[in-house]
């Protein structure tokens, strides 16, 4: 596969990690507030770059002040209201603990733009787009809230899922005097060079599909050659018709975009393999991987029969509701629900998460991890050089985290490919981990559902017990 296709697929994987959060649950209310935040927390000059308005959402309906806690959601790579609408657990826990709820937006996302509409204009404007600056934003906001609307005695518990879960864990590691504990759901803090093999992610995706029937991943693996063969035989119109594409496949780059979009479909369904119907990026059935693999359980007689099955299976993700006119691969098959530009930049600087596949032990095409190609892409797009070992240098490797950190609860879903970069075992008496045997991407942070499995309920029960200890 070409280096441009590898980069496209890599970026899609990191982008879709957040998009599974866009699931409509119960309606919750909040007040929208803005805090005057420093652009650069490390600039002490009088004539510094000034400030910007960081958006945060607040709900104090359950809060009783005094020693009652603050539940602080560390915003992800998107509009903060998306996470407030879809992190039902924090609302349920707040009622139990009489807690103040805060959802803080990550700088450079949503309305929290340090330089307004010019925030992405050039790499000088983007220089303050780092996880360290975001963590300092959260600490500064917490200090302000405790001095104004909340009590100085209120213990703060950080919550987050996916990248937000990474931030909640890092917030506890770096600022233990600010937060007493962190609930980090599906937080791949070890999805970095030297910590997790690059093939792990795609291996877990394949394992999730193989768990239904062996023909399912086999058919997917065989489909790539068949799709490319149609194009190479000069039949791009057949691909457009087969996959109900919005636009023609005019060249090899667009063929690679189609391949990447279909990759996205399989990965997204593994991440969102919830035990009940979900409404993100369109409707999905309960257990969408099982539903899809029922289609792909057959042994097709020829290439055309195989691709008909693949097309039907892809539509489980792209058009389960039967009301989508065509499959738009321009955005990897996803509507622009979240800011992908921001995560693209972060992937080119600090969030360098190696991924690859060998086409034998997984169901994907051969994709070698090429850091040099990634670097050239990032220089071209942002004039930025990726920092391959940033995570280890900043927060420490596995042994360092086990020795130095405390009061963090890591949860991961066994079905979720991001679990490969997560903390799966207890590291110390105060670093807890729980693997949800039938869980997908941060399913435990979602609102309670009658179809929740025993393992999902157990993950939440453990969280409640740990938080009780932390805030006592």
UniProtKB/TrEMBL annotation:
InterPro entries from the xrefs? AB_hydrolase_fold, Peptidase_S28, Ser_carbopepase_S28_SKS
Q: Which domain of life is it from?
A: Eukaryota
Q: Which residues form the signal peptide?
A: 1-20
Q: Any keyword Signal?
A: yes
- Compartments where located: Lysosome
GO MF annotations for this entry? dipeptidyl-peptidase activity; serine-type carboxypeptidase activity
Q: What class of enzyme is it?
A: hydrolase
Q: Which UniProt keywords apply?
A: Carboxypeptidase, Disulfide bond, Glycoprotein, Hydrolase, Lysosome, Protease, Signal, Zymogen
Q: What stretches pass through the bilayer?
A: none
Question: Gene3D superfamilies, alphabetically?
Answer: alpha/beta hydrolase (3.40.50.1820), Serine carboxypeptidase S28, SKS domain (1.20.120.980)
One GO BP? proteolysis
Which Enzyme Commission numbers does its entry carry?
A: 3.4.16.2
**Catalytic activity, reaction form:** Cleavage of a -Pro-|-Xaa bond to release a C-terminal amino acid
Q: Which GO terms describe its cellular component?
A: lysosome
What Pfam families does the database record attribute to this sequence? Peptidase_S28
* Subunit details: Homodimer.
**UniProt similarity note:** Belongs to the peptidase S28 family.
Functionally, this protein is described as follows: Cleaves C-terminal amino acids linked to proline in peptides such as angiotensin II, III and des-Arg9-bradykinin. This cleavage occurs at acidic pH, but enzymatic activity is retained with some substrates at neutral pH.
Q: What is this protein called?
A: Lysosomal Pro-X carboxypeptidase
């Amino acid at each position: 596969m070409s280096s441009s296709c590898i980069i496209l697929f890599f970026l899609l994987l990191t982008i879709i990690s957040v998009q599974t959060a866009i699931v409509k649950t119960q309606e919750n209310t909040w007040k929208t507030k803005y805090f005057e935040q420093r652009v650069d927390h490390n600039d002490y000059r009088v004539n510094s770059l000034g400030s910007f308005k960081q958006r945060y959402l607040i709900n104090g309906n359950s809060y009783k002040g005094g020693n009652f806690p603050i539940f602080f959601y560390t915003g992800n790579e998107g509009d903060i209201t998306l996470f407030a609408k879809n992190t039902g657990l924090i609302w349920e826990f707040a009622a139990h603990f009489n807690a103040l709820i805060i959802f803080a937006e990550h700088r450079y996302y949503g309305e929290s733009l340090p330089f307004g509409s010019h925030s992405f204009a050039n790499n000088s404007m983007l220089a303050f787009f780092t996880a360290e600056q975001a963590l300092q934003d959260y600490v500064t906001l917490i200090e302000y809230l405790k001095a104004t609307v909340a009590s100085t005695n209120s213990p703060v518990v950080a919550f987050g899922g996916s990248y937000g879960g990474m931030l909640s864990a890092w917030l506890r590691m770096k600022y233990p005097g600010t937060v007493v504990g962190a609930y980090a759901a599906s937080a791949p803090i070890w999805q970095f060079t030297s910590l997790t093999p690059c093939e792990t992610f795609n291996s877990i995706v394949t394992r999730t599909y193989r768990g239904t029937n062996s023909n399912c991943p086999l058919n997917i693996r065989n489909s790539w050659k068949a799709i490319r063969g149609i194009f190479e035989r000069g039949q791009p119109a057949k691909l457009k018709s087969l996959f109900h594409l919005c636009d023609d496949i005019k060249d090899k780059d667009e063929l690679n975009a189609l391949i990447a979009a279909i990759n996205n479909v399989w990965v997204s369904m593994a991440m969102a393999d919830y035990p009940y119907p979900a409404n993100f990026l369109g409707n999905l059935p309960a257990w969408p991987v099982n539903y899809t693999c029922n289609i792909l359980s057959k042994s097709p007689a020829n290439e055309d029969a195989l691709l008909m099955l693949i097309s039907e299976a892809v539509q489980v993700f792209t058009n389960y509701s039967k009301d989508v006119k065509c499959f738009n691969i321009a955005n990897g098959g996803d509507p622009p629900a979240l800011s992908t530009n921001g995560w693209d930049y972060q992937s080119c600087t600090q969030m360098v998460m190696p991924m690859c596949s060998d086409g034998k032990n997984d169901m994907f095409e051969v994709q070698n991890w090429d850091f040099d190609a990634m670097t050239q892409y990032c220089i071209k797009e942002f004039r930025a050089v990726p920092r391959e070992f940033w995570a280890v240098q900043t927060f420490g490797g596995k042994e360092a985290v086990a020795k130095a950190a405390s009061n963090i609860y890591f949860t991961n879903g066994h079905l979720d490919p991001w679990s490969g970069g997560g903390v799966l075992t207890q590291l110390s008496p105060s670093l807890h981990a729980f693997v949800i045997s039938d869980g997908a991407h941060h399913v435990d942070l979602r609102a309670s559902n009658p179809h929740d499995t025993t393992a999902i309920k157990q993950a939440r029960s453990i969280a409640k017990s740990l938080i009780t200890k932390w805030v006592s």
